[in-house]
Amino acid sequence: MKILKSAAIAFSLTVAMGSFSTAAVAESDPGRVSHAPADVIKEVDSRIDAALAAITNGAEGDEVAALSKKARDFTKELNANDKVARETAKVRDHLKKAETSAKAANLEEAKAHFQKAKETNLKLKSLL
Hints:
This is DUF4398 domain-containing protein. Keywords: Coiled coil, Signal. It comes from Methylomonas rivi. The chain is mainly alpha-helical. The chain has a single domain (about 30-125), classed as Up-down Bundle (Four Helix Bundle (Hemerythrin (Met), subunit A)), CATH 1.20.120. The protein is built from five helices and no strands. It has helices at about 1-20, 35-55, 60-75, 80-105, 105-125. Helix 2 (about 35-55) packs antiparallel against helix 5. The longest helix has 22 residues, at about 80-105.
């Protein structure tokens, strides 16, 4: 009887814990907007374009660096799989190098890094 009682309790705990998956009921933090991966790629691309346009229009290094930081920060919203995460890290590295170059007033080098980041970012669509 003692064994049957222990088995019944163990079974009921297993069923109770297995019926509520934390991944299934997970929600975004209150006030936080979740983005689809394709939308994040498109938004990062538009932010890179804005930084390139700023360089073309003669913006100063600090302004370009701020645009680069905005694009780099938004890449953190991309959640997909491991391959996408590795490629996103490459995009982030190029944006960081562009930001560093822009702060040093080397806008041609920053432009080259933005182009590489844009190319790598567009490759992400094929990995989704």
